[in-house]
Amino acid sequence: MPTRSEYVKDADIIFTGCSVTQAEAGQPAAGGRRRQVVVGGKRVKTIDVHCHCVIPETLAMMGKTPSANEMRGPGITEVGLRRIREMDEQGIDVEAISINPFWYTAERDVAEKLIKTQNERLTELCSAHPDRFVGFASVALQYPDLAIQQFEYAIKKLGMCGVAVGASVAGEEFADPKFHPFWAKVEEMGKLVFIHPQSTPDLAKRFKGNGWLANTIGNPLDTTIALSHLIFEGTLDKFPGLKICSAHGGGYLPSYAPRSDHALRVAPDMDTGVKLKKKPTEYLPQMYYDTLVFTPEALRHLAAEVGSSQLVIGTDHPIPWQDKSVDHILNTPGFTDEERRAMLGETAAKLLGIPLA
């Protein structure tokens, strides 16, 4: 598995490659063959919802540049083929590619050009390998009206599979009413929202030092805060049809969610008057989560808290957190064959509109 800086790239896109044909045993295939994942005698189409790339052209619009390592490598066709080889080795059939937001501080004219270019470039990659890649749209959420236009264009004209967002927008929470028109449009169109954190910038000083804490702790915490606001501020009541999937197993929220059920009982003075339709923990099973947790017990616990029906594969490629995502699901005890097939691909296929046949 490549390190964080070992990217492959062409003039349009920086992507990585990673590249298993055994059944439940979960062993890599010899000779570069495509791994066929089988559960209970049934072939499963596996779908990874958490995979990244960046596009140098749009990075440059924000005054950012890729590293020297990122600037090396073959063209877009070779990039796609290399990643497909790695997917074949891991047993991943389809990846939904997203780009982590770096444009939430951009001026409107820059944001408009950046997002159009980015979504079109990503669509080019997906169109070159339509049976292996689908793309999450990017939107400039700092301008909700523009984000709606960008989202509709990406879905209706480019055929993208959903929308990827950060966990806040330049310090503003998604629960802010200014974002309600965007959530209403996403709910109306029935597309998946993939939330990927951007650390927790307010704590940057405390994250300094060893351990890459800005990511190790900051990313799961960022997601935890975002989801908690969506629950406690009534956003999920207002838009009950929203399909939200969060990275890294939903951060820390599923692990400690019952504390939320007691918060306003213990501290009634903190009640702002927002009346929820159900207990905070009861909102967890209406959202979705990737399986990027690190032990069988953690995966089992996540499923116990939110339901196995709400889980989908997440590899976080190219960051090498987890290159055994398929085996993680296959080898964790306690799941039925039906649950494993759902987590491996059936649930994601329904959310993203990917045919299973």
From the N-terminal CA to the C-terminal CA, the straight-line distance is 29 Å
Outline type = globular
> Strands across the major sheet, in which order?
5-6-7-8-9-10-11-12
- The structure class reads alpha/beta
Which CATH architecture is right? Alpha-Beta Barrel
- Separate helix tally: 13
Question: How large is the radius of gyration?
Answer: 20 Å
What is the CATH fold-level name?
Answer: TIM Barrel
Percentage of residues in DSSP E strands: 5-15%
CATH superfamily: Metal-dependent hydrolases
Largest sheet: 8 strands, parallel
**Total number of domains:** 1
Mean pLDDT over the full residue set: 89
- Give start-end ranges of low-pLDDT stretches: 1-11, 16-31, 67-76
Q: Can you tell me the CATH class?
A: Alpha Beta
Q: Spell the H/E element sequence.
A: EEEEEHHEHEHEHEHHHEHHEHEHH
User: How many distinct beta strands?
Assistant: 12
Helix content: 25-40%
Give the structure's gist in a few sentences:
The protein is an alpha/beta fold and 357 residues long. Helices cover 38% and strands 11% of the residues.
Please give the structural blueprint.
Layout: E1 8-9, E2 14-15, E3 38-39, E4 42-43, E5 47-52, H1 56-61, H2 76-90, E6 94-98, H3 108-128, E7 133-137, H4 144-156, E8 162-165, H5 180-189, E9 192-195, H6 213-216, H7 218-232, H8 235-238, E10 243-246, H9 253-256, H10 258-266, E11 288-290, H11 296-306, E12 311-312, H12 325-331, H13 337-352
Parallel strand pairs: 5-6, 6-7, 7-8, 8-9, 9-10, 10-11, 11-12
Antiparallel strand pairs: 1-2, 3-4
Helix pairs in contact: 4-5
